[in-house]
Amino acid sequence: MIICADGLASIREAISTAFPNTEYQRCIVHQDRNTLKYVADKDRKEFSKDLKTIYNATNEEQGRKNRDYVTEKWSTKYPNAMKRWERDWDVITPIFKFSADVRKVIYTKKAIESLNATYRKLNRQRSVFSSSQALLKALYL
């Protein structure tokens, strides 16, 4: 099993305690966003394109080479931008164990965030559901 999550403090330990033998994958979308905070607006498009070469690499070795290239290319202009990629590499790399089709699903936690947003919206409109089945119908219809 694999769980894609943010880099919240102690999340990795909580996952390994609750679900032993589960792979923890850092959410790449959040990793990107956190990186781009350090980059000026005028450079974000090019920088973002370079970041994609890291997690779209065919394997971990190529991903590491691409990460090192991006770090070298941008380090003089944005010295702090790539520090998290180096520090968190071990929780970014599980993505390379999977096929391209699976990667598209696990590189972000957007699906669950979308479901949670829908639930919050429904809950604001109606805080009580007659049954769990009624809640599921409201969520998925």
Overview of this protein structure:
By secondary structure, the protein is mostly helical. It has two domains: 2-108, no CATH class; 109-141. It contains nine helices and two strands. Strands 1-2 form a two-stranded parallel sheet. Helix 1 (11-18) links the parallel strand 1 (2-5) and strand 2 (23-26). Helix 3 (41-55) packs antiparallel against helix 4 (60-74). The mean pLDDT is 87.
Task: Provide the descriptors you would attach to this structure in a database record.
globular; transposable element; DNA-binding; mainly alpha; 2 domains; two-stranded parallel sheet; DNA recombination; transposition
Topology overview:
Layout: E1 2-5, H1 11-18, E2 23-26, H2 28-36, H3 41-55, H4 60-74, H5 83-87, H6 89-92, H7 100-106, H8 110-125, H9 132-140
Parallel strand pairs: 1-2
Helix pairs in contact: 3-4
What is this entry, summarized?
By secondary structure, the protein is mainly α. The protein has two domains: 2-108, no CATH class; 109-141.
What topology, given as strand order, has the largest sheet?
Answer: 1-2
- Biggest sheet descriptor: 2 strands, parallel
| Overall structural domain count | 2
pLDDT averaged residue by residue: 87
Instruction: Compute the CA-based radius of gyration.
Output: 18 Å
SS elements, strand count: 2
Unreliable spans: none
Number of helices: 9
The span between the termini is 28 Å
| Share of helical residues | 55-70%
